[in-house]
Design a protein that fits this description.
It is a single chain. The protein has 431 residues and is of the alpha/beta class. The chain folds into three domains: 47 residues, Transferase, Pyrimidine Nucleoside Phosphorylase, Chain A, domain 3, CATH 1.20.970.10; 210 residues, Pyrimidine Nucleoside Phosphorylase, Chain A, domain 2, CATH 3.40.1030; 86 residues, Aldehyde Oxidoreductase, domain 3, CATH 3.90.1170. Helices cover 46% and strands 16% of the residues. The protein contains 17 helices and 13 strands. The chain has a six-stranded mixed beta sheet, with helices on both faces. A four-stranded antiparallel beta sheet has the order 6-9-11-7. It starts with a helix and ends with a strand. The structure holds uracil. Uracil binds next to helix 9. Uracil (URA) binds next to helix 9.
Length: 431
């Protein structure tokens, strides 16, 4: 077999065998297949797609290309939740302790921020002392003790995805559903979880801009999960405007704490509840009504927050700074309404880019983050505002970037005389 033959076969729209797919994935990782041939293969997939069977084999080959996480010796179900990325999306910080407090284990590898979207690992690192780089043994020990551990993904997991992603990035082959689905699921299948729930974001601040493409991606990922014998489902959720009222790293930890303590019941609470109920039902905790009640119960009786504290402490973190108000920078700039009316657009991508400009994210891999940079939204989509009223406050530890961040934020705001419909952010379930 040669790379030339496999590329030609995919170029000619023929279905590849498992051994041809393994040949490409293993060759890409070892370097025996050169970048130009791997790129040509990716372009052939971009144009001609993959069948469900090919996509599953490709995903499994990516998952098997490096170390795996063996989750032996746990009592109970092990579950993971994955979001395709959004702005203000701190759902992992809330859902994980909620379901762990109900006896479902969460042993999770998360990512850093990507572009205008935030990442769980950066948010956790905004907690003083929190260690996202536990050794493999420490990671499993914390998870076994508390039912919850989250670390960052290291280079030894799914190296094939690293090779493919870097080439896709520079060859205009990122936005291909089989390539996105296999990249995400290839990383999810590294660990032998029983249950996976996917939060597929759609809208202005998401990878998928149309409901059709989000539905297609969700269906392909659910099919991969089922092919790998997982209990899996996907929830399509709205990412036209940010989730919750806080965007930024320590700011989002602070908002997560407020939700975990039952102090706010907003769109963030609703999405966390929908995703948690999905995980709990797949974990055979009970029927939907029982799972909904269980979610409200552990928020209201403090068990979920207690689990969050236990997890943070077990990974070396100290929440006292954030709890005493050190979650936002000292430099502040206010965004005010240019006219009176209703907010008809609060573009999630622009809000994310504005936070990035303040220092909450990275434009280059090696950039450092200002954990106190970010945004508090005083107003949300559909809210009434009067001219001059404060819509949002932008925070940073330095004054750098405020002019640009305000401009970007304002570009994403529209105010009109008619109140827009504000629907639930939970759009659809793919099971
Ligand atoms: N996230 C990933 O991990 N991979 C993709 O291809 C897109 C989003």
């Amino acid at each position: 077999m040669t790379a030339y033959e496999v590329i030609k076969k995919k170029r000619d729209k023929k279905e590849l065998t498992k051994s041809e797919i393994d040949f490409i994935v293993n060759g890409a990782v070892s370097g025996e297949i050169k970048d130009y041939q791997v790129s040509a293969f990716l372009m052939a997939v971009y144009f001609n797609g993959m069948t469900e069977r090919e996509t599953l084999d490709f995903t499994l080959a990516i998952a098997n290309s490096g170390d795996k996480v063996k989750l032996d010796g746990f009592n109970g179900i092990k579950a993971d939740k994955h979001s395709t990325g959004g702005v203000g999306d701190k759902t992992s910080l809330i859902i994980s302790p909620v379901i762990a407090s109900l006896g479902v284990n969460v042993v999770k590898m998360s990512g850093r921020g990507l572009g205008h979207t935030g990442g769980t690992v950066d948010k956790l690192e905004s907690i003083k002392g929190f260690n996202v780089e536990l050794s493999y043994d420490e990671f499993l020990a914390v998870a076994k003790k508390t039912g919850l551990s989250i670390i960052g993904q290291t280079g030894t997991f799914a190296p094939a995805d690293k090779v493919f992603y870097a080439l896709r990035d520079v060859t205009a082959t990122v936005d291909s559903i089989p390539l996105i689905a296999s990249s995400i699921m290839g990383k999810k299948l590294i660990a032998d979880d029983d249950v996976i729930v996917l939060d597929v974001k759609v809208g202005l601040g998401a990878f998928m801009q149309s409901i059709e493409s989000a539905r297609e991606l969700a269906k392909v990922m659910v099919a991969i999960g089922k092919g790998a014998n997982k209990k899996i489902s996907a929830v399509i959720t709205d990412m036209n405007s940010p989730l919750g009222n806080y965007v930024g790293n320590a700011l989002e930890v602070y908002e997560a704490v407020k939700v975990l303590k039952g102090e706010v019941k907003n769109d963030l609470y609703d999405i966390c509840k929908a995703l948690s109920v999905e995980i709990l039902t797949l974990s055979d905790y009970g029927d939907r009504e029982e799972c909904e009640k269980a979610f409200d119960l552990v928020i209201n009786n403090g068990e979920a927050y207690k689990k969050f504290e236990e997890f943070v402490t077990a990974q070396g973190g100290d929440l006292s700074g954030i709890l005493s108000g050190k979650y936002k920078g000292e430099k502040v700039c206010e965004i005010t309404a240019q006219s009176s009316g209703y907010i008809t657009m609060l573009n999630a991508e622009k809000v994310g880019l504005s936070a990035l400009t303040l220092g909450a994210g990275r434009t280059k891999k090696e950039d450092s983050i200002d954990y106190l940079a970010g945004i508090i939204l005083n107003k949300k989509l559909g809210d009434r505002v009067e001219k001059g009223e404060v819509i949002a406050k932008l925070y940073s530890s330095t004054s750098n970037g405020f002019d640009m961040a305000c401009k970007i934020f304002n570009d994403g705001v529209q105010i009109n005389s008619e109140k827009p419909p504000v629907d639930s952010k939970v759009i659809e379930y793919i099971r």
